[in-house]
Structure formats: C-alpha cells, structure tokens
Q: What sequence folds into this?
C-alpha cells in the first residue's frame, strides 16, 4: 500500500475542458455570501444537499474566456461536524457529494477585523491539500479601525495566496485581483499538504491503510486518502459525524481503535482540546508582528455604544417592538397598493378573456382556472418580498442576532431558542417567507419545530375568511360601554388560538420526535454593518424566484385541477333550462334594470346548480358524511375541499354554491345573507353558532395552503414533514370544529 | 441596594469598575459568575467531553484567553461576552461549563 496523499484524489484529473469548481468557505458574518453574490451575480442556482436541510448555492464565475463553478458552503467556524447538516461543507470539500466533482480550489473568506478566530477554519482547509486562495475581506473596515495587516507577510507565513477585498465592493474591477488568483489556483496542485498535528495525521493515515487493506475491495467504496482525512477528523471530533460515517462503513469495532489512537496521541486532555489549543497557538504565532491594532478600538466602541442601547434589556426590548411594528406596518400598508394593482390586473384579464373568447370551457379555464390561479400566487408576492427584504436587511446589518439574543429567554419555554422568534413573527404576515427565513436557525431540530409551528400563525390569507365568518355570524355586541366588541374578541381569540397551537406544537415536538442533546445558543453578535444593496437585491430576487418557481407551479397546477373539478361535467339540461327561462324573462319583463337583475339571479342559480352536479359538488356530497359530525352540509364540505390549495378561495366557492356569483368578497352583504339563512332540507339552519365557530377554528388550525406545503418540502428536503404537517393540522382543525359543533 | 447596583440591575451603567476586593473570583468560578467590568481568564472545562466543549474551544474558549461579560438579556439569560476580539452569546448553562480564574491586567 503506497502512502496516499489527499491531493491524489482531491486535486486529480485536471481536465482543461471540464468546468473547474471552486468552493467558498468561511465563518458566518465575514461577508462570504456577499462576496459570492458579487462574483456570480445573477448566475446562481439554489438546491439542497441530499438528505439534509442545508442549502446548496451554486454560481457561475467567468474569468476571461473561462467559466468556473462556485459553491458557497454554509458559514462555519470549523470543519468539525457534529450534525448531518454540518457535514455538508466537508462532504463538498472531499468530493463526496453525488454529481459534484471535488473542488479544484478553495476560496477562504476571512474577516480582516477578526483574524484570529477566522483563521481557525482557514488552517483546517489548508490541511486538505487543495489549492487555497484567502480573501482578506473587509480590509476597508479594518483600515477605518486603524488595524494594519502585513498581507505579504501573512501570505508567506501561511504559504498561500492572500488577496485583500473590501466588504462594499460595488465596482467590479476591485474584484479583479481575486479573480486572477482564483484562475491561477485551480490549475495548481499541492504535493505535500501541510499538517498542524502531524502525529495525528500520520496515525490517521496508518489506520486508513490498515482499514482499506482489511476491507474487501468491493465492500469499501471509500478511497484511502478520503478515509485518511475522515479518520483524522474522527480522531479529533470524538462522537462526531466523521466517526459515525466510518462506523457505518467499517463497523462498530472502529470506535475502540479510534479511542486507542486518541489515548496514544494525548495525555491529560482531549484531542479536540489539543487541536484547538495548538491551532490557536499556531495562529497567534503567525499573526505575531504582522497585525497592529489600536489599544482602544474606536469603531468597535461605536458598535459597542449602539449595543448599549439596542441590546439593553428594557430599551432594547422596546426598540425591538418598534422595529417589528414598523416591519408589519410596511408589510401591510406598502403591499396594499401593489396587491390592489394585481387584483385589478387579474379582474381586467378575466374580463378580457370573457369579452374576446366565446363562452365555454376554454374561456372558463383561462379566466377562472389560469388567471385566478396565477393571481392567487402573485397577489401575495408584494407582502412576501417586502417581508423578505426586511429579513435580509435585518440579517445583514447584524440586528437579527440582537433580536435572537433578546428573545431567547421567551422562546426557551416552548423548547426553542431566540433564533426562532423572527421567523415565527413573520408568519403572522405569511408562512412562506417565515419558513424560508428559518435558515437563520442553526439547530436542525429547532428549525423543523419552528417550521411546523409557523403555519399556525394567523397569516394575511386567513383574514378575509375570518372577516366573512365573523361579520356573518358574530353579532355586533358591545360590552363595557363599547370598549369591548364581541366581533373583535372573537378575532383576538382566533389569533390566540393560532399562537397557542403553534407554541404547543413546537413544545410537544421538541419533547418527543425532535428531542435532542442539551440545547445550545452559541451565537456570534457581529458588529453592526451597512448591508450591501447589490447583495440584498440578489438574495431577494433569488428568494422571489424560488417562491414563484416552486410554489407557483404547484399552486397553478392545483388551481387548474380545482377549477376542472368545479367546472366538469356541465349539464346540458340545466343550461337549456336556463336559456328557456332567460328568453321568457327577456320577453316578459319590460324594465331593463329589472330584466338584467333577474337574468343575473338566473345566471347565479345556474352556476350554483352546475356546481352541485359538478365533480366538486359530488365530492362535497361524498365527503359530507365525514363532516356531518361538524354540522356541515355538502356545500360547506365542497368549499372546504376547494380551499385546501389556498384558504382564501373559500369565499369565491361559497359565493358560487350559494348562488351569489363567484366575484364576491368578504364584505358582500348578499353572500352574508345567503350564508346566514342556509338551511338543511328539513328547514334547520346550517350555521348555528357552534358550526360557525367550528368553521373558524377549522380555518385557524388547518394547513390550507399549497404554497406552505411546497415550501416546507423545499426547506426540509423531504415530503415527510409537509405530509406530517398537513395531516396533523387538518386533524387538529377537525377536532377543534367537532368540539365547537357540540355547542349546538 | 445602592443606586449604582440598582442601575446595574436594570442594565444601565454597564462596565462600571468595581473595587479590587470584589473582583476576586472563587476557585470554582465559571463564566456564569462573571461580573460586569471584571474580565477573567479561561481555565478550562468542567467536563472536556461536554457536547459543546469542542465548538466553544473553536470559538475561542481556550486556556488563557481573557473574557469579559458585556451584558445579559432580559431575565439574566443568555449572556453576552467579549472573547478573542468579538462578541459571543451563551446561555447561562453553557457558561457554567467554563471555569475561569482572576485576571489582573
């Protein structure tokens, strides 16, 4: 067995025709993603790594005539992995991700204002034997803080290329030196990789050679150099992912062999301790004499002074309420004109369709299926984008970390951490950006618990449904000299129901299937920074695209299906009957206004009759026995089925089934009257107080939003969680409505 | 309770210097015992095999590092520290894993 070098595998097969791959590594808050966005611009793709919830961001970088693929790895302080999500970075670097070649070079982004901690992961990457380019980022900020760094000396001591970059690089030419260094690095190879703990490395290589020799060739798909680095990691990261991975390949006996090696390599301390101590000692020695910083850092004390107020327990909390209040005001008030515009455009398009096309299935498909379906997606885009923009700016400015710090205590009693607060709050506007925003939560279990809790919050699509039901069934009663209004009280109750549902869900999940090791809250509070506008826009567009592509296609498809269910089959007898009655009215009624009104009534009645015998109507009748205990008739059952893709659809469907036309809104008096007077065949009213309350509770608890389902699928990278959420929330909604129906 | 203590209790007047006598930390003091304006030096971990120990060391909690309490969140938890030139937030339970000793500048 020849002693293997990691470079044999990692930097092999240099093929000039193949697109070279560059991985981007760095601590969180170093401006790594900003730099990635500036290098790749809009040429980005976002996907998930197989089996984990970490986002895989790929981008294309053109340097001269050559094109490179950049992979932005999740921000990390070290290559040590203690969870499957943390594995993603090291898997990419070792070339262990399917369909992804090992990188030809690594760009390590380090923050010039905090070299010591940033160099930790940089030195780990240098041990991999892949050519490295270090971007010494934020040199402008370092300069403004009077920190001076001898870049040439740093490069010489680390034996790699170091290129200074600035955080707010808006002019493209300022990135030229970095691009040139990357283009050069991908063609290089390293023969003898440097190692900090040489004895650990040698022990790992010996063990790797033994294991590969022992294993039958076909049972082991792990190549020796990769195995050597995995063992290197497993020795240091006791009980971590590398050890688990190796045990799954070489068997449980490996644990003892690893521990025997650890005992040989250290005395009186753990290997992780030795690694951290020696690495920081090496870094301190490397930086000695080449970094000069003032005793009292002015800039830092500025950020510190801001924090005296922003992170203050009392003033900071008030400020936080103010900030979140502003965000919500903006989401609702700025979005309204845009939403009205979209609504108007959809109405105009519907009119145009009916005006230009002959009446029939095609026109109805275009107007009620396509336009309505697309409209129902796009209408929420303004709110979603405004919310995204705020979340991204809060993240990039450093405020998000302060919010998490202030709210940690509050979130802890439902088993979560402060990281979950802003995503949870965002879902009061819309669960979609909230769920996408859970990427700030480092702990996977916390993240999933937050994703499961978010759809319970009263989002803006629930409001029209609540408005209709409350205005229809809850009397205008005032208590305490008009200070308390019964309708308002019910609305408040529905909000609270959502909050309690979400909090209890997170609480129960964290105590059962998502139970894990002791919760941690290790979070850096980065200095306040001005967000880079271009990078914010790139991320905003990327998220908008993701929403429109993933959610848009599914919602569109589902809308067309629901349209078809409600449209087909058409009864010719009913249509002929309508034409006869219409003719009779036209010949008998003289006053034009009265005639038109009568015809409108007939049209609405035809639509209602067609709905009754359509597939949706029949489905409503088929499932009606299931909803019977809730006190629902087939019309309500059909409307509820139709509103699973998007809950606000219930108003239009109720409008059609109750024969007041589908173009009603929640303010429509006709719809309210019809719904209020709806009766069973024996004359009993359908909507008793219990049924009405039950319906509201059902809509409060149920996951009736295809966009949310699809986004949960995307963010958890499996259908397991969206399926669980749907079944669980629908079940809760049913039970809630059942309980209310008992009120009579 | 003096006005100064009261002010500190409610988060005002951070970083106030305290007399040398008060700044002495007990032998078994941890990061959770840190007082405002009284930096200490990291000694090590209660249990070096603690699941968070490796991550904490990588974040700079290594023997000899000077660490300072900056503030605590509402309710006294989590805490914000300054270590290795940056600010780090820790829950009290994790902070109690890290042993510290007096630091005299």
A:
């Amino acid at each position: 067995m020849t002693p293997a070098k990691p470079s044999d595998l990692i930097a092999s097969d240099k093929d000039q025709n193949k697109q070279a791959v560059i991985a981007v590594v760095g601590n969180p808050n170093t401006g790594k993603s900003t730099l990635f966005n500036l290098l790749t611009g809009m040429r980005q793709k976002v996907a998930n790594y197989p089996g984990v919830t970490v986002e895989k961001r790929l981008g294309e970088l053109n340097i001269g005539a050559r094109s490179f693929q950049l992979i932005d790895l999740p921000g990390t302080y070290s290559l040590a992995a203690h969870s499957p999500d943390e594995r993603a970075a090291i898997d990419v670097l070792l070339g262990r991700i399917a369909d992804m070649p090992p990188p030809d070079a690594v760009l390590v982004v380090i923050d010039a204002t905090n070299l010591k901690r940033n160099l930790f992961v940089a030195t780990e990457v240098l041990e991999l034997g892949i050519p490295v380019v270090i971007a010494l980022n934020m040199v402008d900020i370092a300069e403004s803080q009077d920190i001076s760094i001898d870049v040439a000396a740093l490069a010489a001591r680390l034996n790699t290329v170091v290129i200074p970059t600035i955080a707010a690089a808006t002019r493209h030419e300022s990135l030229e030196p970095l691009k040139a260094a990357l283009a050069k690095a991908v063609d290089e190879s390293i023969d003898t990789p440097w190692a900090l703990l040489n004895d650990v490395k040698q022990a790992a290589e010996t063990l790797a050679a033994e294991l590969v020799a022992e294993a039958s060739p076909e049972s082991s798909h792990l190549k020796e150099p990769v195995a050597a680095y995995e063992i290197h990691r497993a020795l240091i990261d006791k009980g971590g992912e590398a050890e688990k991975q190796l045990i799954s390949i070489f068997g449980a006996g490996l644990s003892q062999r690893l521990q025997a090696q650890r005992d040989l390599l250290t005395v009186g301390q753990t290997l992780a301790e030795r690694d951290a101590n020696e690495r920081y000692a090496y870094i301190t020695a490397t930086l000695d004499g080449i970094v000069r910083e003032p005793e009292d850092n002015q800039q830092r004390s500025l950020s510190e002074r801001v924090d005296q107020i922003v992170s203050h327990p009392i003033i900071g909390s008030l400020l936080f309420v103010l900030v979140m209040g502003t965000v919500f005001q903006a989401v609702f008030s700025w979005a309204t004109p845009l939403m009205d515009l979209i609504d108007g455009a959809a109405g105009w398009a519907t009119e145009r369709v009916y005006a230009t096309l002959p009446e029939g299935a095609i026109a109805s498909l275009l107007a009620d299926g396509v336009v309505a379906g697309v409209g129902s997606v796009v209408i929420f885009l303004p709110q979603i984008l405004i919310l995204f923009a705020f979340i991204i700016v809060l993240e990039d400015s450093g405020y998000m970390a302060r919010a998490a710090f202030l709210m940690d205590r509050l979130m802890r009693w439902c088993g979560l951490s402060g990281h979950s607060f802003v995503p949870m709050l965002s879902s009061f506007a819309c669960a979609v950006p909230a769920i996408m925003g859970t990427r700030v939560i480092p702990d996977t279990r916390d993240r999933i618990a937050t994703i499961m809790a978010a759809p319970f919050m009263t989002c803006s699509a629930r409001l029209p449904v609540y408005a209709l039901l409350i205005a229809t069934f809850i009397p205008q009663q005032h208590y305490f000299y008009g200070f308390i209004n019964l309708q308002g009280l019910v609305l408040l109750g529905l909000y609270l129901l959502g909050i309690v549902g979400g909090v209890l869900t997170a609480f129960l999940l964290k105590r059962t299937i998502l139970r894990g090791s002791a919760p941690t809250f290790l979070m850096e509070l980065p200095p306040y920074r001005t967000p880079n506008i271009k990078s914010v826009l790139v991320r905003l567009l990327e998220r908008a695209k993701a929403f429109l592509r993933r959610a848009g296609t599914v919602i569109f498809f589902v809308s067309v299906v629901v349209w078809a269910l409600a449209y087909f089959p058409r009864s010719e007898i009913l249509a002929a009957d309508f034409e006869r009655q219409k003719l009779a009215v036209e010949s008998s009624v003289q006053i034009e206004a009265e005639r038109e009104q009568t015809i409108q009534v007939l049209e609405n009645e035809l639509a209602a009759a067609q709905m009754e015998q359509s597939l949706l109507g029949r489905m409503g009748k088929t499932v009606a026995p299931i909803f019977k205990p809730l006190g629902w008739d087939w019309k309500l059952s059909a409307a509820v089925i139709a509103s699973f893709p998007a809950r606000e659809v219930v108003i239009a469907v109720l409008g059609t089934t109750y024969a007041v036309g589908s173009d009603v809104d929640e303010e429509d008096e006709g719809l309210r009257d019809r719904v209020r007077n709806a009766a069973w065949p024996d004359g009993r009213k359908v909507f008793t107080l219990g049924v009405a309350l039950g319906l509201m509770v059902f809509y409060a608890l149920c996951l009736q939003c295809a966009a949310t389902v699809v986004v949960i699928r995307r963010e958890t990278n499996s259908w397991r969680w969206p399926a669980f959420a749907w079944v669980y929330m629908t079940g809760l909604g049913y039970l809630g409505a059942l309980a209310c129906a008992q009120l009579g | 309770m003096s006005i100064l203590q009261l002010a500190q209790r409610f988060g005002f007047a951070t970083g106030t210097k305290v007399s040398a006598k008060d700044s002495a930390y007990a032998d078994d003091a941890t990061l959770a015992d840190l007082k405002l304006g009284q930096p200490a030096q990291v000694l090590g971990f209660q249990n070096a095999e603690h699941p968070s120990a490796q991550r904490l060391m990588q974040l700079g909690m290594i023997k000899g590092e000077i660490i300072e309490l900056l503030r605590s969140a509402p309710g006294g938890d989590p805490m914000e520290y300054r270590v290795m030139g940056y600010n780090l937030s820790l829950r009290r339970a994790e902070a109690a894993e890290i042993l510290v000793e007096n630091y005299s500048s």
Observations:
- The first strand of chain B starts at residue 40 and ends at 45.
- The CA atoms of residues 72 and 79 of chain B lie 4 Å apart.
- The helical segments of chain B are 3-9, 53-58, 92-95.
- Chain B touches chain A through 38 residues (CB under 8 Å).
